[in-house]
Amino acid sequence: MTSAPTGPGAPTYDVVVIGAGIVGSAIARTLAGYRLSVALLDARDDVGEGTSKANTAILHTGFDAKPGSLESRLVHEGYHLLGDYAAATGIPVERVGAILVAWDTEQVGNLPGLQEKAVANGYPHTEIIGAREVYRQLPHIGPGALGGLTVPGESIICTWTTNFALATDAVRRGAALLLGRRCTGVTVAEEATVLHTSAGDVRTRWVVNAAGLGSDVIDQHFGFDRFHVTPRRGELMVFDKQARPLVEKIVLPVPSAVGKGVLISPTVYGNVMLGPTAEDLTDRTDTGTSEAGLEFLLEKGRRLMPQLLQEEVTATYAGLRAATEFSDYVVEVDAEQRYLLAGGIRSTGLSSGMALAEHVRGLLAETGALELTPRDDLPDPPRMPNIGEASLRPYQDAARIADDPAYGRIVCFCERVTAGEIRDTFAGTIPPTTLEGLRRRTRAQNGRCQGFYCGAEVAELFETRAAAVTAEGQAHR
Amino acid sequence: MSTDTNAADADAAEATRDLTPDVVVVGAGPAGLRAATELARTLSGEVLVLEREREAGGIPRHSDHLGYGIRDLGRFVTGPTYARMLRDKATDAGATILTEAMATDWAGPGELMVTSPEGRLRVAARAVVLASGARERPRAARQIPGDRAHGVLTTGTLQNVVHLKNGTVGKRAVVVGAELVSWSAVLTLRHAGCRTVLMTTTHSQAESYWLFQRPGRLAFKTPVATRTRVTRIIGRPRVQAVEIEDLDTGDRRTVECDTVILTGDWIPDNELARAAGVTLDPRTLGPLVDTALRTDLPGIFAAGNVLHPVDTADIAALDGAAVARHVRSYLDGARPTRDGVRLEVEAPLRWVAPGIVRPGDPAPPRRRLLLWTDEYVRAPRVVLEQGGRVVARRRVLWPAAPGRVFRVPSDLLDRIDARGGTVTVRLDS
Ligand SMILES: Cc1cc2nc3c(=O)[nH]c(=O)nc-3n(C[C@H](O)[C@H](O)[C@H](O)COP(=O)(O)OP(=O)(O)OC[C@H]3O[C@@H](n4cnc5c(N)ncnc54)[C@H](O)[C@@H]3O)c2cc1C
Ligand SMILES: Cc1cc2nc3c(=O)[nH]c(=O)nc-3n(C[C@H](O)[C@H](O)[C@H](O)COP(=O)(O)OP(=O)(O)OC[C@H]3O[C@@H](n4cnc5c(N)ncnc54)[C@H](O)[C@@H]3O)c2cc1C
Predict the structure, then answer these.
(1) Which end of chain B is more exposed for a tag (fewer CB within 10 A), N or C?
(2) CATH architecture for residues A1-95+156-229+326-388
(3) How much is the pTM?
(4) Contact B12/A392, CB-based, under 8 Å?
């Protein structure tokens, strides 16, 4: 961030991306790879505060998408792009694989069709298996499974680190991060578009709308009325790490006439997740949980894996999918207004985000109105702090602790988060601004005690560090 | 159950330093400190206490009110004073207390991996005492739906915030629970300038009235809603109200508040025990032990609230004194017989500790059997049944009340056949 984004003498960006979720961050990162001035703008005080922070965190192969759709292609491509990017940046991923478990004859009957669909989606590696094989691979599921379809490529990933990595990369490539700016109106003019925000105007030539739940409202600011977002709530339950040995793979429902079931999945933090529900709401900010939702999950869970319900619940939360009247993504470019919409990315955007960014780049290039000259001076992708269980964490790392004792000082006991990691987040490219943000970067307080032991300690560490960051920021001004 | 969930195991076993004390005690709360004190006084080898917090003392460190030390020290002091006394005694006796040292997992049978600023340590002791205590279940574990609101805390967090960090809470609190710890929460709230506008308990009125409501009225003028549960948290970003339900009528109403304290509903910190493959008592969720506080893994013992969630600190400390004797005889070569009977309970009892009685074994700590009830029973008759026959029966003069441990003289166990079948404990009114 070189100069102030608003006020007299403020720059006119080549592109402003509205929405710093996974989709917007991926787009900003891609565009910042060219000789363009790019800004990533969000209403919230941190990146990844929208749908991208609360999902089931599966890196989908796209086996069950609608063949021929944009979503099908982008999930398929995104799966590989994000998989490679995760390896380069250290985003936690575990290649656990999934099994769709059929519980009645209708579902068994649907398996061959699903297998064909997977092939049509470019995923030929599924296999139909019998009940015995289902129980061999998933010994803890409840009685009554009749068969299944394996999807060995389905993986689990850390959605938080994904969002942070993409946004960090964008910023390190030179994109300006404009947080705390809710876009409330747009004025399109010949020379530049002005975005009116809660913290002043921002001028830009091009606008990319990746505002998730708010994307239809922004679209209306550009004079369109082509889609409407319905927040579809998905409630989830996270079980204690002690449940992890019960679930080696993702247990997926078979879609059937009766509707979608819920899934059980391990998480990269070593927990087990049950959910999500699907319920249309009107309030786009209601990420609360409901009595009916939790009861529904418990009822499903009892059938799917009775033993799981013996374990403690560590967290319950809800995410809102940006559902629209269209089943596919809505990605359209309007060269005249120098405006691109990436909306309706409802339930696969984590997986597809990086491919979507490539797709957006292609659409922009096609207009011929935006010159895309690749930069040859790009920094390496960032190395993200590891908060996954599959590789060594700082508290386990004897050499690292010997170098810096702060990695030996565990502050959050349940999640084994060290003072060194908390300190590091404040020196990162995008430091946390809230305790919530600290949680997503380190896992602090995400564990079974939810702060019984460390709540006060972590809050204090956060406040002293955050105060230091603010003071430093002011000193630079 | 014993599967280690840690995928990075091989790397995790990499240590900077190896320690080989005679005994390692995990947790420097009342139970662990007292155990270490007694052991250090009589053993020639090292007694090492691992404590993950910056300061030893356990929960009493931040429980800044009177009520500690009665049965073990014959004193009546505050939590922090009590913690200091226990700490000093352990150090004076020659025990080594390592703070900011968390036992994270096992490198092998009886071998602990520990993370501390001094490095990653491997601790191989001849005996291990698990004294890791218990915690209150937080909101998610209680599955209370509603908004993701700030201001919903357990008593543990509340007291950490107020007493260790001099932090503030809100002005109007609803305290969920009306047991001993709940009153401790009310005291802390009052200290922090926050009024408790309501306490809720799922237990029924008459019993709770006697136990809770009267002291509530007298001491704090705090209304108690009995037979009531919290069904929803309302408010964003901070809590503005809770919805509560009358369990008998199903009627719901909202109570305005800016703070919700979730008290009681304890669960042992059983992670290490489970990771070691120690059999757990499915009712307490702590390690299953016999009257000598042995787990089913040789050389691994347990003491304090990890066994009985939860009793008072003095009882935990006296567990520590008892376990020290049993560890010593283990180090001297004594081994338990394999025989033994399992103790079970019938509703309204929820659990009994210890859970195993072996022939020829010593009495449990303080010669008491500890029981937890979900219903109030005034002056109950405690009945032990074995093989379909009543083998012991005793009327006690104190009530069995929810929210506090119900203690019964353990000589009742003299009547059972420790080589026979399961013994069931029940309450008759
Ligand atoms: C329950 C659930 C489970 C899911 N599971 C998976 C899964 O397993 N795998 C998978 O790939 N996908 C999954 N998804 C989908 C995935 O989470 C989303 O597709 C993805 O996060 C969308 O990212 P986004 O960047 O488009 O939206 P968001 O993350 O919501 O980002 C949009 C951003 O725009 C900002 N914004 C909105 N309006 C304005 C405005 N006016 N001005 C400024 N900023 C604004 C918001 O603050 C927000 O930060 C799931 C979703 C849900 C809800
Ligand atoms: C709010 C409140 C009020 C109370 N009021 C009273 C009262 O007035 N009078 C009274 O007698 N009792 C009271 N009690 C109960 C009393 O605090 C407990 O009975 C007592 O602390 C139990 O002792 P303990 O040693 O079993 O466990 P704890 O005190 O919980 O100590 C366990 C210790 O083990 C440590 N530990 C756990 N795992 C590890 C690990 N892996 N590595 C390293 N260290 C570890 C923990 O950090 C902790 O310090 C109160 C409790 C609460 C919560």
Answers:
(1) C
(2) 3-Layer(bba) Sandwich (3.50)
(3) 0.95
(4) yes
